[in-house]
């Protein structure tokens, strides 16, 4: 592996590790309503990426996108999907449902494959079909055990999967895309924050210094992994990048079981085993080890 690829792999590992630690960040803000945390994440993400874009003098890249009505519609759809995904994830962490979140991000690559088949008419090879079948068995075990569909996991996987599919058609870098998406969401987010502050219920300045600093830092916590991810994506193959994405849900899983002591029974272990098997098969098929 040459130096450029080595740097790319290392950067991807750091990006997904930071994403894996995000639940710890949102746990600190556990006393703040999820919708308020989401609103601050949107506003401060916009502020932070706007500063980076301004510093890099990249404002010129925005004009061609916002002048294209089709691209604007895609940006709006992407903004809705990422807002739903962020909001659900923050709520899940605060509600001690980190294992459900972990499951959602584990099955996300397979959801992305299914979306590729449905939306982009992509063809599945036999190993990909086997991977999806194994994951389906794992999810089915959870459904039978709990007597209900793991809606949170599917909602997280679907919103992020649809977001990824939309982003394929958006002609913008990750940084510019994040700026435009948060700009779409910012008016509502700002209105909600102001209403909370005016009513005396707002967390900004009304809580501990730690909470205030973590709210203000939400933009940095959001944008830094994304910037690192974009950096690595240009330097390593997508198959390699795809394998590193399992770092984040694995860390979420470990935090959920060993740090936050969420219930994890034998049945859960069997279910996750089928899903992990699915990911191994899928990853190997991507790097053409068993094709």
Total E-strand runs: 0
**Would you list the SSEs in sequence order as H and E?**
HHHHHHHHHHHHH
Number of helices: 13
Shape: globular
Range of strand content: under 5%
The class by helix and strand makeup works out as mainly alpha
Short description:
The protein is mainly α and 291 residues long. It contains 13 helices and no strands. The mean pLDDT is 88.
What does the model show?
This protein has 291 residues and is mainly alpha-helical. The protein has one domain (3-286). The protein has 13 helices and no strands. Helix 2 (34-55) crosses helix 4. The mean pLDDT is 88.
Summary keywords:
single chain; 13 helices; 291 residues; mainly alpha; globular
């Amino acid at each position: 592996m040459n130096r450029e690829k080595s740097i790319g792999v290392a950067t991807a590992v750091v990006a997904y590790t930071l994403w894996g630690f995000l639940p710890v960040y949102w746990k600190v803000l556990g006393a703040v309503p999820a919708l308020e945390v989401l609103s601050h994440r949107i506003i401060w993400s916009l502020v932070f990426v706007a500063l980076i874009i301004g510093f890099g003098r990249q404002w010129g890249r925005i004009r061609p996108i916002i002048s294209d009505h089709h691209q604007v519609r895609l940006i709006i759809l992407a903004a809705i999907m990422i807002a739903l995904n962020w909001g659900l994830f923050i709520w899940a962490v605060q509600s001690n449902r980190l294992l459900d979140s972990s499951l959602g991000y584990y099955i996300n690559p397979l959801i992305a494959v299914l979306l590729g088949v449905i939306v982009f008419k992509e063809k599945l090879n036999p190993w990909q079909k086997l991977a999806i079948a194994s994951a389906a068995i794992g999810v089915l075990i959870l459904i039978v055990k709990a007597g209900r569909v793991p809606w949170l996991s599917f909602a997280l996987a679907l919103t992020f999967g649809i977001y990824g599919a939309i982003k394929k058609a958006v002609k913008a870098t990750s940084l510019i895309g994040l700026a435009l998406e948060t700009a779409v969401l910012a008016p509502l987010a700002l209105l909600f924050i102001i209403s909370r502050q005016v009513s005396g219920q707002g967390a900004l300045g009304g809580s501990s210094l730690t909470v205030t600093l973590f709210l203000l830092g939400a933009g940095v916590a959001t944008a830094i992994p994304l910037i690192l991810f974009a950096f690595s994506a240009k330097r390593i193959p997508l198959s390699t990048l795809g394998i590193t994405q399992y770092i984040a849900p694995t860390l979420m899983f470990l935090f959920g079981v060993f740090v936050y002591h969420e219930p994890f029974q034998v049945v859960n272990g069997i279910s996750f085993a089928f899903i992990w098997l699915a990911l191994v098969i899928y990853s190997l098929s991507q790097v053409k080890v068993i094709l």
